[in-house]
Specification:
The complex is a heterodimer. By secondary structure, chain A is of the alpha/beta class. Chain A contains 11 helices and 14 strands. Classes of the chains: A alpha/beta, B mainly alpha.
Chain lengths: ~300, ~260
């Protein structure tokens, strides 16, 4: 069964079209990724899915129900970890969870048991009486994830869950997401970290300027759009460029680098290094970041 | 159109929980405030102003201002809660955004904030009530009506505050309604002197201010007369509160959901 079905979804803010006719399906128990540069429309898309924003046009069905008809009921089954920290600074760590559970009408000893269980899950039980200000960035993020789970959501929406965190904290959060997925939660994740998406997502879409550019599994996308290998040449020059052109290789050029995308990495690599020497040349596996940059371009956003 | 449910009270509970954590801080200013006013105006100014003519009778100055001070406390606590305090929750703490990712609707949140503002107005009004009662300035039992009215008019003032919150760009902009609206009401709604001492045009202006209705209504009750004027003054406040609540609900929905 599909947890989320979006057909030709559009969201316009005054003159600006943030989401421009996108269609996607999120199946039960999968981890679905929304990738894209800043301003691509990822957050607007998830905000429509958790019924915070009303779509301008198009069809949006969550848990088999029209998102415009009964947002309250849909929201009962969704957990949201927003991009911006919005923990309640007036309350302690555990009260943040208890008060939030109460918004879902979960109260009393049942709520307390759930909150304590979640604090153990994210490793913050020892901090349960602390004020929010005393927590580090990673702890706040973990607490938000715990908070998004108080209602035992069928769909967990994570909007850039690890932005700004150190590698330790990121890996800890990834572990939590993987264990949630194993226990049957459907996860919808937005990120602009490609390694995160490759690590966690079963399927993903890459968005840019409000539109979906490609969709598929990370492996499919890499194979299809970047090949198996990338050769990075740091001595970009006209001689090399014309040679690559003449050979008919697929490549991309930046101010100081050339990136060659190929299915036959070792062969092409030895061809090039044989000709130009191997200083400043390196061969590596193609990754999602190559796909992303190839599709969305290298120029800065915003 | 208006998607309001009883779940709204979960937001009220959140505010009450926070209030209880810092109850000492929340309790002391409203308790000291009336004492300061009574001391300054009653003992200080009261030495100069002996009796005040009010509806044909002479009453002591303290008896005259006591209901006005209750009304002022209600206005301040209701209005300031849904302006500065609500704005901090909405804009800086993003508390509303967090609430809106739960089954709560924006209407639930805004309504609960208004009711919470009225609750704080009720608390402040009650403290003021007890202090003035202990000073022997209220006629019981008619004065007991003051208590439910502090809540009702608290709704009016906090709904008005919420209207401003729905429109201001930043927190400094609240200086305008405070300077242009709250301060003139405090001075010209008949708290400190009978409106009859103003020229008739100024009296007409005064009767456009919501606080005038509350002061007049509470004064009648404090002096033990529950008359027909009290009823229509309450009605005016109720209608005004209803309209402001409606406007703020619509405007807040626009503001938060763009």
């Amino acid at each position: 069964m599909d947890i989320v079905i979006a057909n030709e979804l559009v969201k316009t803010f005054r003159q600006v079209t943030a989401v421009d006719h996108i269609s996607l399906r999120v199946s039960q128990q999968e981890c679905f990724g929304l990738l894209g540069p800043n301003g691509a429309g990822k957050t607007t898309t998830v905000k429509m899915i958790y019924c915070f924003l009303e779509p301008t046009s198009g069809e949006l069905i969550v848990f088999g129900e029209d998102a415009l008809k009964d947002p309250r009921r849909i929201k009962e089954g969704i957990g949201v970890c927003p991009q911006e920290n919005n923990l309640d600074p007036d309350l302690t760590v555990i009260d943040n969870l208890r008060v939030f559970a109460r918004y879902f009408d979960i109260t009393g000893s049942k709520a307390l048991a759930r909150c304590e269980e979640l604090l153990h899950f994210v490793g913050l039980y020892g901090k349960r009486k602390s004020a929010i200000d005393e927590l580090s960035g990673g702890m706040k993020r973990r607490l938000i994830i715990a908070r998004s789970l108080v209602n035992k959501p069928r769909l967990l929406i994570l909007d850039e869950p690890t932005t700004g965190l150190d590698p330790q904290a990121r890996h800890q959060i990834w572990e939590s997401i993987i264990s949630l997925k194993k226990s049957g939660t459907t996860v919808l994740l937005t990120t602009h970290y490609m390694d995160e998406a490759a690590h966690l997502c079963d399927r993903l879409v890459i968005m840019d300027k409000g539109k979906i550019m490609v969709s598929g599994s990370p492996k499919e996308l890499i194979r299809h759009h970047a090949g198996s290998h990338v050769i990075e040449i740091s001595l970009a020059g006209e001689v090399i460029e014309s040679y690559l052109k003449q050979k008919g290789f697929t490549f991309e050029k930046t101010a100081s680098h050339i990136f060659v995308y190929t299915q036959k990495g070792p062969e092409v690599f030895s061809d090039i290094t044989h000709k130009f020497g191997d200083g400043g040349c390196s061969l590596r596996m193609a990754n999602l970041e190559d796909v992303f940059l190839k599709l969305t371009g290298r120029e800065l956003r915003e | 159109m208006m998607n309001i449910s009883l779940r709204s009270m979960r937001v009220w509970q959140r505010n009450f929980d926070v209030y209880l954590v810092t109850w000492k801080v929340n309790f002391i200013p409203p308790l000291l405030e009336p004492l300061l006013y009574l001391f300054a105006f009653g003992i200080g100014l009261g030495q100069l102003v002996k009796d005040v003519p009010y509806e044909g009778v002479q009453i002591s100055y303290l008896r005259f201002i006591a209901p006005g001070l209750i009304a002022t406390a209600v206005m301040n606590h209701g209005f300031f809660e849904t302006t500065y305090a609500s704005f901090v929750r909405m804009y800086f703490q993003k508390t509303y955004d967090a609430m809106l990712s739960t089954p709560l609707t924006i209407e639930d949140v805004v309504l609960a904030e208004i009711v919470w503002g009225a609750t704080k107005a009720l608390f402040a009004g009650c403290i003021m009530f007890v202090v003035t009662l202990l000073f022997g300035l209220l006629s019981m039992p008619a004065a007991l009506w003051i208590i439910p009215i502090t809540f009702l008019s608290g709704l009016t003032f906090s709904a008005m505050g919420m209207c401003f919150t729905a429109f201001v760009k930043n927190i400094e902009m609240f200086n305008f309604p405070v300077f242009l609206f709250i301060t003139p009401m405090f001075l010209f709604s008949g708290v400190f002197f009978p409106l009859s001492s103003l020229p008739s045009w100024a009296q007409a202006v005064a009767w456009c201010l919501p606080l005038t209705f509350l002061v007049s209504c509470l004064r009648s009750l404090a002096l033990g007369s529950f008359n027909i004027a009290v009823i229509w003054q309450i009605l005016v406040l109720a209608v005004l509160g209803f309209v402001c609540a409606l406007v703020s609900l619509i405007a807040m929905k626009k503001r938060l959901l763009k």
